[in-house]
Fold Phosphonate ABC transporter ATP-binding protein.
Amino acid sequence: MLRLIGLSKSYKAGDKALSDVSLDVPKSQIVGLIGPSGAGKSTLIRCINRLVEPTEGEIRLGEVDLVKLGTAELRQARRRIGMIFQEYALVERLTVMENVLSGRLGYVPFWRSWMRCYPPQDIRRAYELLDRVGLMEHADKRADALSGGQRQRGGIARVLAQEPELLRVDEPTASPDPNTSRQIMRLLTEICAERGLPAIVNIHDVPLAQQFMQRIVGLRAGRVVFDGAPDALTESALTAIYGAQDWHAMRQGDEEQADAEADTARRLAEVPA
């Protein structure tokens, strides 16, 4: 379980990115973080493994308060926390398999990583993960030969090779292809259920969050203003999160996108077989 207790982050200029955030994320639960730009979503995700140092509060993973760890202990603890990035974080000149094996860097001696000489059990595990995310046939391709959705799957496999106890996910649905976005979210939810992994997902697509997240947390100006089930995310709750003007503009954009997708589907249906 991840537990945030009174988490706050202030910068020297006096700006407060997070203010007294308290959350419990139990095993297997997927939490979607939503909110306008500058609400503190990315700061919260980065505070969890102290890429951003919190000003106050506790960050507990299991029984360990990550805030109190020294440098060496924190390095060990970070192996337990996986991060799936919006931009995939793959090394383009390496093969897909080599990228997945890089998830083991925290567990192998430097010489093994330098020589790319990983233990046999790590290699077997990497193949299993590639098969799980649907990339087995691409194992020997360079990462830059993959599509955006395939790169996202490669990033997921790399993080799973790390054997994390918690996933942090930053904008996994940034792909302009709605179908790919849904496939990635479905894969993430299945993997979290299979492995009992809790996950915090920074997501901008509210309808997609409502479809796949088990719980929604809305941030505004660094504070939690909503915490509940997706079906409790009413228009008044969304207005509290985004503000009336921002929410109405976002809803209009979603409606226009839905109309465009429906129009594309109709056009495809009219094409002779």
Remarks:
- The chain is about 40% helix and 20% strand.
- The longest helix spans residues 244-270.
- Residues 3 and 29 are 13 Å apart (CA to CA).
